[in-house]
Each structure stands twice: as structure tokens, then as C-alpha cells.
Automatic annotation (TrEMBL), chain B:
Gene3D superfamilies: Lipoprotein localisation LolA/LolB/LppX (2.50.20.10). Transmembrane segments: none annotated. This is Membrane protein. GO terms for biological process: protein transport. Keywords: Protein transport, Signal, Transport. InterPro entries: LolA/LolB/LppX, OM_lipoprot_carrier_LolA-like. Monomer. It comes from Pseudomonas taeanensis MS-3.
Length: 809, 197
């Protein structure tokens, strides 16, 4: 037949085009994205919020923080020196900071000109409320052999305002610079820790950077460990590296394992090596899926690939549909088997597509990408199975393992015996009880942390670093908007006053706000007034030998200096730590952030922002978790919608009653899987819900196969079993993923597949009469399929089920 | 900070050794288990004709640490031991550690006390001259950071350290004199109590 000659050639052209497209897409290396977080929906906030989020995320994605500890201080400094030297040569880092090599003259310059404005809140309050205490403290300092080093010489800072303002530089006092080496040190329980802060050239989303950074950390750990030291590391890069390594490992293990097991299964079942060409659609599907993603999104995410490996099972199913018919007859022929099963194949494709595309309508880029990947992959696999495979399988004489068919027949016989005793009703009742019991125990859980694999060691180290340094950046922060910098400082000061209480009640570790660098003008005005009254209190300084003229001159100079504005304060070296908090000016005014050091209690933070103008608490994590939960609802709606669509589609060949049965059985299977999750104590996550959504589509595939009943119930059941097994091999292996969301997805789908297979025989038309032997039923499907499945070429009437073997012999 | 470094210099001599007699000097200065005496500190500022002068007493115990008792023009007591710097308040000794760089200097100090001078030798260039009866030791900072703070520390003495002078990078200088130090055998009851709590 000419069509049988054209189809393979046509497909060959398509395949070549696909290969060319892929080659072009890969011309600059693999178009892979590795950030799981880039698959999350974008924030709902306006542009400013998104800019603020980027600003806060940047250091998390680019910075590496190392603490290198040794019982001996000198050794700790030597170790950090070695590690920094080694890292410098790797060219991976754009900045490496392990010592204070500050330009003291720039610091002195800013301190001289703005020391009054840079005075920290506590010193300011003391100067206003207890000027005599302030002066006494200064007098003592003049003779204190152990007072810290002052940046300004005495004669430029008689009153000691510069010495106090200088503390702004190091608000958390735990980290000290070693004056000899400049190393940043931290003492804790007999250990000296040195600090190394590195900023990488490429972000965590780069393909190679995380692995190389992880290797650099590993090398540093070896160096330090070999010399009796200890190393702690914290960086978003390390999580990215671990995630990448896990994903790469899982793609090769899960994908490879599924493929190998499937290969064995096919060989065992059909006992012909040539059958293995039916694996070809898998390759074509993966190729088409990733190239469609690159086409639509510019890149394909590594998580899409992991979830996409599950496509292997589904892509194989198409070929199974007609290969399994070889049990039904001895003179199996590829093209005629295809013609007999083509309507079923096409329906399967349509229902699967509906299931996958329903995913695309969620607001989650992750699922949209998986949907596009799978839809493109399915279409490619279908075309490959329909156009190319029959040509390659043509002339093959299949003699599949008869034991399998026997097993299938025995299964059906058991089922018939069971049903003869009990009937379907009581079994359905039991299942309903099981479902109700399980559903009652089901709990829903959505947490972004499930996206990240569990990395207990990384977490423990980050925790230890947080305890040692007091630095534990949280993803929450405050965004404060105002008309001008003055108002911004005012608003941040108002919020700070409330945050102080939150810190005092241990609901927050600490925070950093712009008003810590520069107090609002109103507070600085009060300070200037207090300064004018200072001569009444400076007797102790005169007694120490400082001439009154010198004090007066300094006071005058302080009062004459024009007030510093926020942008000036930020521009100087003192402002360095606060610069990231300043978002700058825009048409609508100015904006600044207040960053938080965790652990933070969200209700307290929310309460702190309450009623303050221009203050907004930005909580991306909470927002996302909320979005997860909300999406579950819309997912359930999607599921029902997709079912209605499938129902409508199937009522064309099967009639409404038949279609209902074909659709309701997978739904029941999904419900039972849901109940199982409940019984197992596993949470229902957004991902397991989507897994079940897929199950309804894949399950319909099986019920169609049973309903279609080509070759009889035993042959159809065997086909279903093989299809379910290959699907399960890929989905089931996702169970072992270390990323909780993927494992959860795998579990839900595995359970769903199992119940789909178990319930599928009820879709078979014969069972409506309670017997597998009934051959008198005609359905709409038969009407439709008869012209396609030509009995003369196919050898046997389609539904002459168990007697088929004999008829054909 | 500067004064602390002066004191560091004082103890440094007791533990550093180099070609000539640094070895001997080190042994010589390390001999007494207990040292006490008056100190006079003069702060020479370019802006003032007269130095800012303060006086007091010190007790240095190889075993316990250092008591630094400022008596004029203010009355202030400090203690440096394994726990860091403490200041005497009405409520008793109050630990100063963790408050700016002072805590770090006390550790520097104790590192010297214990003879752990590797770090100091790396941070300073040492030059010793004179004889065992009259010697001078100069410490020149190596690191960029220290060079921005002071230019040189000069230490002089005979059997014991007598004079320490620190030249600040910005032009002022501090002179610490220990004119009449005496070696001793045991702490007084009061001193023992001061080191105890």
C-alpha cells in the first residue's frame, strides 16, 4: 500500500528536521537551566517589589561564606590565607575578602566631616539625656590603656564623638579585625574562626559554576582538615550544586534504570530482539520535548528533564498497543495490527494530551514546562509509533511468551470467580469505605522547602555559621516607600522602634535599617540642641588637661558642619554595609529596605508593619506557599474540567454510558490512590495532586484499551499490564528521588497506576454482563472500529476474546 | 589600642628571641615570676604644649595576668587575664571583651605572655641593639593596616623594661615609663582577690 511507503519517509523528514533543530539549539552548549527556583511563579508584587526581591536574592545566589576555625589563632589566619590564595587562582571569584584592607584615610575623612550624623542611637541618646555620663566616659577613655583604637587623632575628636560614631562600622561586635594581618576573626569556645567572604563571577543559575564552587569548598575543607582545622561553609551555590548533582544522578539512574528494565521486560514478553525498536519513540519523545521547551522558553529546566523521564513509560505505550495484539493471533502483522488499534491509539493520544495540557493552565512555570515537554514528546512518540515503527517491524513474526497470556487469563478467571461470588457492588462498597477512611487521614502540605532536596549537612553548617556570626539572612524583608530620603528615614525609624521590641522578645535575631546609619533629621536636630548645652558638663575634660579653647573650637566646628544627607552617608566607606538597602529615587519617590536576620516570627513582623505608612512586609516564601495551597484548588478544578473534556471526546465512540465508565474508573483509581496517601501518612502536595491529574489521563488510556477489547479481554489485560508496568518503571522510580516533591509525585503516580490497572477490567464491555465469555455485545466503538480493523487481514473478529486462539488456529 | 600595644611590646621582649641577645633578653625578662611598680604615661599631642599625663601602679604575674591601676588623674582599675579585659566597677569586675578591638588586644597580650610570638614576628620587623644592661628594641609594623596606625614602637631597658614609646602614624606619640619596677615573690592578699573573682 502506498501509504505504508510514504509514512515512514514523511516521518524520516520530520525526524531529520527535529534533529537539525536540536543541533541548532545546542550550538552554544546545552540550553539547560538548573535553578529550581526559576520554575516558581513570579511574585505578584509591582516592579519595585520585584527589584527589591532581586536585590535581596543576589547575595544568596552569588556569595559564599566560609568560617575557618583552629584552636590556634595564628594557624587559623594562616589557613584562611592559604584558602584565599588557592581560590584566587581559580578565577571563579570576582571578589575575595578575608581581611580588612580598609583605606583608613577615607574612613577618617568621612568620620571627620559627618561624625555627628553617624553617631549610633545609643550614643546619641546618652548625649541628649545624660551628657555628664557621656563626658565622663570620654575622660576615662583618654587614659584608658585598653580602649579600642580610635580612627581620629585626639586633637580632632576631643569630645569623643568620632570614637563613638566609629562603632557604626561594626555594629555586631563578634567579628573583629586582626590588626596585624587584617584577618576577620571570631572567638568562640577556644576556637578562633576566620571569615572568608567570596562573591562568585557566575550565579547559582549558571550550569558549571555551582559544581566548581562546591569543588573549591571541598578542596578548602581538605586543606583545612589536614592541618587540624575546621571549615564551615554557607552559600546558595552549594544547594544549587547539590541539587544539580542529585538531578544529574537521578536522570541517569531513573532514566537509565527505567530504560533497562523496560528493555528486559520487552525481551521477556516478546522474545524477539527486533521488538526493541519500539524504544525508538522514547528517544524521539525526549528529543521533541526538550526542543519544544527550548523553542518556547529559551531553555529547558533540569527538573523538567527529571519529571520528563516519566514520559518514557507513556511513550512506550503506543507501540505496546499493537505489539500486545500478537498474543491474540499467530500471524501478527505490523501494519494491520496498527490499523486495528489506530483509533484507540489516537484516542489515547488525545486523552493524554488533554491531561498534560491541563497542567499548562496552572500559574506554575514548572508545570507549564512539564506540560509542553510532555505534549510535544507524546505527539512525537505517537507519530513515530504510527509512521515509522510498523515499517521496521514489518515482516517480523512475533511469538510472544504464552505463559504471560496464560497468566492474564488466570487473573481474569480469578476475577470472574470472585465476582460470581460477591458481585461488583460489595467490592465497590469496600473500596468506598477504604477511600473514606484514607481521605479522612489525608493532610495537605505545601512548603517550598520540599523543592530543595534535603541537605542536612549544608543546613547544619549554615545553622552553625548563623550562631557564630549572628548572620542568618531571611527571605523576608520590609520595603519602605517615601516621598524623599528624609521621610524614608523617618518611616524606617518608626518601624525600627517596633522591630526593637520584636528583637527584645526573641522573635527576631536582628535587622539592618538605613536609619541605623543616619538618623532622621528630627532626631539629629535634638542632638544639635543638646550639644549647645555641653559646655555645662565638660569639666572632667578640662581637668584632664584639655584646653577649653580646643573644646569650644571643636563644638563650633561640629555645629557649623551642614547636616549629611542619606546619599552622602551611603557614598562614603561607612555606608558600604547599608548601600544594598537603598533602592534609589524613582518618579514616585524613594524606597529603601530593612533586611532581617532570622529566625523571624512572621505574625510579629506583620504586626510591626501594621498601620505604618509606606511600609510593606515582603515574604516571598510565605507568598509562594500560599500560592501552592491556592493552586491546589484550581488544580482540582482543572482535573474535573479535563475529565469533562475527555468524557465528551470519548462519548463519540463509546456513547455517554461507555464513556462515563471509561472515565470514572481512572477517577476512582485516583481517588483510591489519594486515600492510600492518607493511610500511608503521606502529605498531599501540589505535585502529588498533579500526579493524580496525570493518572486520570493515563488511566483512561488503559480503560480504552480494555473497552476496545481488540483480541479479547485477556490480550487487552496483558497489553494494559505491559503498558502499566513500563509506565510504572519510570514513574515508580521517581519514588527514589531525593527531591521531596519529585518523590511525592512518583508515589502518587505509582499508586494511581496500580489502581488503574486493578480497576481497568471493569471497563471491558463483557463485564457489564458479568461474564468474560459474552461476545454478543456491539457498541458504538465496534461500529467505528470495524472499517479500520479489517477482520480479513486481522484474522479474527475483534471481540472474540478467549476463544480467539482456537478460532485462529 | 596604642597603649595596649605598648604593653604588648613590654611583654614581647620577654618572649622574643633573635640573633644577638634576643634569646638572652627573652630569658632575662622572663625570669621574674612577679613584677610590680609605678607607671607614668605621657601622651604627646601636636595640638597641646603639655603632654596628657597619667600615673598609676601595675602588677604583672606570670601565672595570673596583669593588674593595671590608674591613680591619677582618674581612678580606674583594669585586669587582663585568660578571660580578656575586665574593668572594676561598683558592682565588681566587669568583662570588657567583645567591645570593639580592645578584647582582641587582650588576647594579643596573653599570646605574648604565653610566649606565642609567631604572629607578632610576622606583623612586626624586630631590631635589637645595645647590651644586656642597656638595650633598645624597635618594632616596625609590616602590615598596611598597622602602618596606617603607627610608625614604630621603641622599647628600652636593662634588667627590666624601663621605657616604651609609640609613634603614631598621624604624628602624636605616647611614652610609657616604668621607672621603678620591683621583682617580687608572692601576691598580696588584695592582689590575689583581684585576680580571683
Amino acid at each position: 500500500m502506498p501509504i505504508e511507503r510514504y509514512l515512514p519517509r514523511l516521518f524520516g523528514v520530520l525526524l531529520l528536521a527535529l534533529l537539525a533543530l536540536t543541533a541548532w539549539q545546542w550550538r552554544n552548549g546545552p540550553p539547560l537551566a538548573t535553578s529550581l527556583l526559576s520554575l516558581l511563579p513570579h511574585g505578584a508584587g509591582d516592579q519595585l517589589v520585584q527589584r527589591a526581591e532581586q536585590r535581596m536574592q543576589e547575595p544568596l545566589n552569588r556569595e559564599v561564606l566560609l568560617l575557618i576555625g583552629h584552636p590556634q589563632r595564628e594557624q587559623a589566619i594562616e589557613l584562611v590565607r592559604q584558602v584565599a590564595e588557592d581560590w584566587r587562582t581559580t578565577q571563579r571569584f570576582e571578589r575575595l575578602q578575608w581581611r580588612l584592607d580598609a583605606d583608613l584615610s577615607a574612613l577618617r575623612q568621612q568620620l571627620r566631616s559627618s561624625r555627628l550624623d553617624l553617631l549610633p542611637a545609643a550614643a546619641r541618646a546618652q548625649l541628649i539625656e545624660q551628657p555628664e555620663a557621656f563626658i565622663q566616659q570620654r575622660a576615662a577613655q583618654l587614659f584608658d590603656a585598653f580602649a579600642g583604637y580610635s580612627l581620629l587623632p585626639l586633637e580632632q575628636d576631643w569630645l569623643g564623638i568620632g570614637a563613638r560614631a566609629q562603632q557604626t562600622l561594626n555594629p555586631q561586635q563578634r567579628i573583629q579585625a586582626d590588626l596585624g594581618s587584617g584577618a576577620l576573626l571570631l572567638q568562640d569556645q577556644g576556637m578562633t574562626w576566620t571569615l572568608l567572604r567570596a562573591r562568585t563571577r557566575d550565579g547559582a543559575f549558571d550550569l558549571q559554576a555551582p559544581a566548581e564552587i562546591a569543588a573549591a569548598v571541598h578542596r578548602a575543607r581538605d586543606t583545612v582538615g589536614a592541618q587540624g582545622g575546621q571549615l564551615l561553609a554557607a552559600s546558595g551555590m552549594l544547594y544549587a550544586a547539590a541539587g544539580q548533582a542529585t538531578a544529574a544522578r537521578e536522570i541517569s539512574w531513573i532514566g537509565g534504570g527505567a530504560l533497562l528494565a523496560t528493555l528486559l521486560l520487552l525481551l521477556l514478553a516478546y522474545r524477539r530482539a527486533r521488538v526493541l525498536v519500539s524504544l525508538l519513540p522514547v528517544g524521539v519523545a525526549l528529543l521533541a520535548g526538550s526542543s519544544a521547551c527550548v523553542l518556547l522558553f529559551g531553555q529547558v529546566n533540569i527538573m523538567t528533564l527529571v519529571l520528563g523521564t516519566s514520559l518514557i513509560g507513556v511513550a512506550l505505550d503506543f507501540a505496546q498497543h499493537y505489539l500486545s495484539k500478537s498474543w491474540g493471533q499467530s500471524n501478527w502483522h505490523s501494519w494491520s495490527a496498527l490499523r486495528a488499534t489506530l483509533p484507540g491509539l489516537s484516542l489515547s493520544l488525545a486523552t493524554n494530551l488533554i491531561g498534560y495540557l491541563a497542567l499548562a493552565f496552572t500559574p506554575f512555570p514548572a508545570l507549564t514546562q512539564v506540560a509542553v515537554f510532555s505534549a510535544a514528546g507524546l505527539i512525537a512518540a505517537y507519530l513515530c509509533a504510527v509512521c515509522l515503527l510498523p515499517a521496521w517491524l514489518s515482516g517480523l513474526r512475533l511469538s510472544p511468551a504464552p505463559a504471560l497470556l496464560g497468566g492474564s487469563q488466570r487473573l481474569l478467571a480469578w476475577r470472574a470467580a470472585l465476582l460470581a461470588k460477591t458481585g461488583s457492588g460489595p467490592l465497590l462498597g469496600l473500596l468506598a469505605l477504604f477511600c473514606v477512611g484514607g481521605l479522612l487521614q489525608l493532610h495537605s502540605q505545601n512548603d517550598l522547602r520540599q523543592w530543595l532536596g534535603q541537605q542536612p549537612q549544608l543546613l547544619a553548617e549554615a545553622q552553625q555559621i548563623a550562631e557564630l556570626t549572628g548572620q542568618q539572612p531571611t527571605s523576608q524583608f520590609f520595603l519602605v516607600r517615601a516621598a524623599d530620603p528624609q521621610q524614608l528615614l523617618q518611616r524606617q525609624a518608626a518601624l525600627s522602634a517596633r522591630l526593637d521590641q520584636v528583637v527584645a522578645s526573641d522573635q527576631l535575631r536582628s535587622y539592618r535599617s538605613l536609619n541605623q546609619l543616619l538618623a532622621p533629621a528630627s532626631q539629629r536636630l535634638a542632638l544639635r540642641e543638646a550639644l549647645q548645652a555641653l559646655p555645662q558638663h565638660w569639666q572632667p575634660l578640662l581637668a584632664a588637661g584639655i584646653p577649653e579653647a580646643a573644646l569650644r573650637a571643636e563644638l563650633e566646628q561640629l555645629l557649623d558642619t551642614p547636616p549629611t544627607n542619606l546619599e552622602q552617608a551611603l557614598a562614603g566607606p561607612f555606608g558600604e554595609g547599608w548601600r544594598p538597602l537603598w533602592l534609589g529615587r524613582s518618579d514616585s519617590g524613594v524606597a529603601g529596605l530593612i533586611s532581617l536576620q532570622g529566625p523571624a516570627d512572621m505574625p510579629s513582623l506583620r504586626a510591626a508593619a501594621e498601620g505604618l505608612d509606606g511600609v510593606q512586609l515582603v515574604d516571598r516564601l510565605g507568598e509562594l506557599n500560599g500560592l501552592f495551597a491556592a493552586t491546589q484548588l484550581s488544580a482540582a478544578e482543572l482535573k474535573l474540567t479535563s475529565c469533562v473534556a475527555i468524557l465528551l471526546l470519548l462519548s463519540l465512540p463509546f456513547g455517554l454510558r461507555g464513556a462515563l465508565r471509561v472515565v470514572c474508573l481512572p477517577l476512582l483509581a485516583a481517588l483510591t490512590a489519594l486515600a492510600c496517601l492518607g493511610w500511608l501518612g503521606q502529605p498531599l502536595t501540589l505535585f502529588s495532586l498533579f500526579g493524580l491529574l496525570l493518572i486520570t489521563a493515563i488511566g483512561v488510556d488503559y480503560t480504552i484499551l480494555m473497552r476496545e477489547n481488540i483480541g479479547g479481554p485477556a490480550v487487552s489485560l496483558l497489553g494494559t499490564l505491559l503498558a502499566a508496568l513500563t509506565s510504572w518503571l519510570s514513574f515508580g522510580l521517581l519514588l527514589v528521588s531525593q527531591t521531596p516533591v519529585i518523590a511525592n509525585f512518583g508515589l502518587a503516580v505509582s499508586l494511581g497506576l496500580f489502581f488503574c490497572f486493578l480497576l481497568a477490567p471493569w471497563a471491558s464491555p463483557a463485564t457489564r454482563r458479568g461474564t468474560t465469555q459474552n461476545t454478543d455485545q456491539t457498541t458504538v466503538w465496534d461500529e467505528l472500529s470495524r472499517p479500520m480493523a479489517n477482520p480479513s487481514t486481522y484474522g479474527c473478529p475483534p471481540r472474540a476474546a478467549p476463544r480467539l486462539d482456537k478460532d485462529c488456529q | 589600642m596604642i597603649r595596649a600595644l605598648l604593653l604588648a611590646g613590654l611583654l614581647l621582649c620577654a618572649s622574643l628571641a633573635q640573633a644577638f641577645d634576643l634569646e638572652q633578653l627573652s630569658a632575662q625578662l622572663a625570669k621574674p615570676a612577679l613584677l610590680r611598680g609605678p607607671f607614668i604615661q605621657e601622651k604627646h599631642l601636636r595640638a597641646l604644649p603639655q603632654p596628657l599625663t597619667s600615673k598609676g601602679l601595675f602588677v604583672l604575674s606570670a601565672e595570673h595576668g596583669l593588674l593595671w591601676q590608674l591613680r591619677s588623674p582618674l581612678h580606674l582599675d583594669y585586669r587582663i587575664d585568660a578571660n580578656g579585659i575586665a574593668r572594676r566597677t561598683k558592682q565588681g569586675w566587669q568583662q570588657q571583651a567583645g567591645q570593639d578591638s580592645a578584647g582582641q588586644q587582650s588576647r594579643l597580650f596573653l599570646a605574648v605572655l604565653k610566649g606565642d610570638h609567631a604572629g607578632l614576628a610576622r606583623d612586626f620587623e624586630l631590631h635589637l641593639g645595645g647590651s644586656a644592661d642597656a638595650w633598645q628594641l624597635s618594632l616596625t609594623p609590616r602590615s598596611l593596616l598597622l602602618k596606617q596606625i603607627f610608625s614604630v614602637i621603641q622599647i628600652q631597658g636593662g634588667a627590666l623594661v624601663e621605657r616604651i614609646e609609640l609613634q603614631e602614624a598621624q604624628g602624636d606619640s605616647t611614652l610609657l615609663r616604668l621607672p621603678d619596677s620591683q621583682t617580687g615573690n608572692s601576691l598580696s592578699e588584695q592582689e590575689r582577690n583581684d585576680f580571683a573573682d
